[in-house]
């Protein structure tokens, strides 16, 4: 049976595919990432690869469950979105606690990528206003994605109902054939 996917699901597939590619790239060179440098600042540098692996797994599972919908997949996707958002809020909170460390992390990250770090841009990003915008943006993106999931929840639930129905029909059909009372 071919699954009809709404356009929204394709948009989410592209978004999470991009996020997964970013996660994989971050694994290759995470020691100069802003997130890692801030985790290291609070003494949790060994926890960062675990958090990154968890988020990467959730992004990969999200792609899988967007392609092969199920009720379990709906819950996994929602959990992954929430965990990703919480990690971004955590990073921004660390930055708010020490703006100079955040500023240094931004500069180190840009230099590691051989990109310029204009002082005006760095100062804007490493300000309380910039970090509050980052927190707000993270929350807004999570709300939008979760809203899209809720809006299209029938895509996830109808697939599992179809599977249960066909499974139940198979059980009924097979039990009728094997039951001597129905012969």
Please, could you describe this protein's structure?
With 183 residues, this protein is mostly helical. The chain is built from eight helices and no strands. The protein has helices at residues 7-28, 34-41, 48-67, 71-97, 99-112, 119-125, 128-151, 153-178. Helix 2 (34-41) packs antiparallel against helix 5 and helix 3 (48-67) runs antiparallel to helix 4 (71-97). The radius of gyration is 22 Å and the shape is elongated. The two termini are 31 Å apart.
* Beta-strand percentage range: under 5%
List low-confidence stretches. none
Rg, rounded, reads 22 Å
Helix-strand sequence:
HHHHHHHH
Largest sheet properties: none
The total of helices stands at 8
Supply the helix-strand structural class: mainly alpha
Overall average pLDDT: 86
Terminal CA distance? 31 Å
- Summarize the amount of helix as a percent range: over 70%
Shape: elongated
**How many strands appear in the DSSP assignment?**
0
At a glance:
The protein is an all-alpha fold and 183 residues long.
Layout of SSEs?
Blueprint: H1 7-28, H2 34-41, H3 48-67, H4 71-97, H5 99-112, H6 119-125, H7 128-151, H8 153-178
Helix pairs in contact: 1-3, 2-5, 3-4, 4-5, 4-7
Features:
single chain; 183 residues; mainly alpha; 0% strand; elongated
